[in-house]
């Protein structure tokens, strides 16, 4: 039994971690709290499963038991570099996976718990050194990388090591309001085989798009339900989690994805910030800039004083033209899509591929809507709720 800093809230002072024997988990540095462990153990399962499904280094950025971003290791282009304020694109595969995952939603990744599927190297540690983050969980660490990370947060950065081969079996239990609940563990892994049932007229799915569909589907398995994910080029660029209706999940995920693509727009990348503006403040200012039309007069004045010259807004026509250029954007749903309004909203964000459970009473309407828009629609037959 290992004591934790506190429970979900600071006044829940009695909190502990109970490990099996032999323990698959080691605390190498820092003192985790209850929420830290929820994020760590949930995100670890995601990156491990994604690594098994794709064969590539995988990473997740977690906040409040849902991913802010998820990605597999792939090269980083110049537009991503500039939009994320990166100084280089020279990263190892595991580092690029996390850089891309964190860049899926800069606002939500602030102060995250991160998980990676591969050994942490110096490339990743050097990047993480200056980012605001609370915890890392990984299967191993290079000695030099470990020393770099131990210096974060004045030595308080939580570093966890997880046995990659550990896989619990049987049932799992939890207690709510003094009453115990038990269920079979959700150990059903999602693989490429589960994406073979393409029910739309359009069945053209490239290998690269298949990877993005896997990222979308597997990420949802470890996202608070109801949930919708948007994936592009092997990374999550929008998540709608924990909503009570699926259309609200879809709107939230698509809105986030629209903003992610607009971050790559030349007008955004060319914003002339004052010299003393920190990176985290630039992130918030870009979010405000992209919502300029909805700002009050005082909010607009407060935003504009952070630029050397007043920026030029992105017009509605420019927004639409810019986002339409991106191809093979994927949408995933953790359960069946009940109404076509989800597909209509997805089309506005240039979604071309949809993966969902299938099997609803209105499935024929969803298939019809996807066919009208020329989308592919894949049915997995797997519901991936998480509560």
Strand proportion, as a percent range, falls in 15-25%
Question: Which range best describes the helical content: under 10%, 10-25%, 25-40%, 40-55%, 55-70% or over 70%?
Answer: 25-40%
State the CATH topology of the largest domain: Cytidine Deaminase, domain 2
Lateral strand order in the biggest sheet: 3-8-7-6-4-5
Structural class computed from helices and strand pairing: alpha/beta
Q: Report the top-level CATH class of the largest domain.
A: Alpha Beta
CATH homologous superfamily of the largest domain? AICAR transformylase, duplication domain
Q: Any guess at the CATH architecture of the largest domain?
A: 3-Layer(aba) Sandwich
> What is the CA-atom radius of gyration, in angstroms?
21 Å
Number of helices: 14
Number of beta strands: 15
Number of self-contained structural domains: 3
Key terms for this structure?
single chain; 387 residues; alpha/beta; Cytidine Deaminase, domain 2; 3 domains; 6-stranded mixed β-sheet; 5-stranded mixed β-sheet; 15 strands; 36% helix
Folded structure, characterized:
This protein is α/β, with parallel strands linked by helices and 387 residues long. It has 3 domains: 2-162, Cytidine Deaminase, domain 2 (3-Layer(aba) Sandwich); 190-262 and 322-379, AICAR transformylase, duplication domain (Cytidine Deaminase, domain 2); 273-313, no CATH class. 36% of the residues lie in helices and 20% in strands. It has 14 helices and 15 strands. Helix 3 packs parallel to helix 5, helix 5 runs parallel beside helix 6 and helix 8 runs parallel beside helix 13 (341-348). The longest helix is centred in the first third of the chain and has 21 residues, at 34-54. It starts with a strand and ends in an 8-residue tail after the last strand.
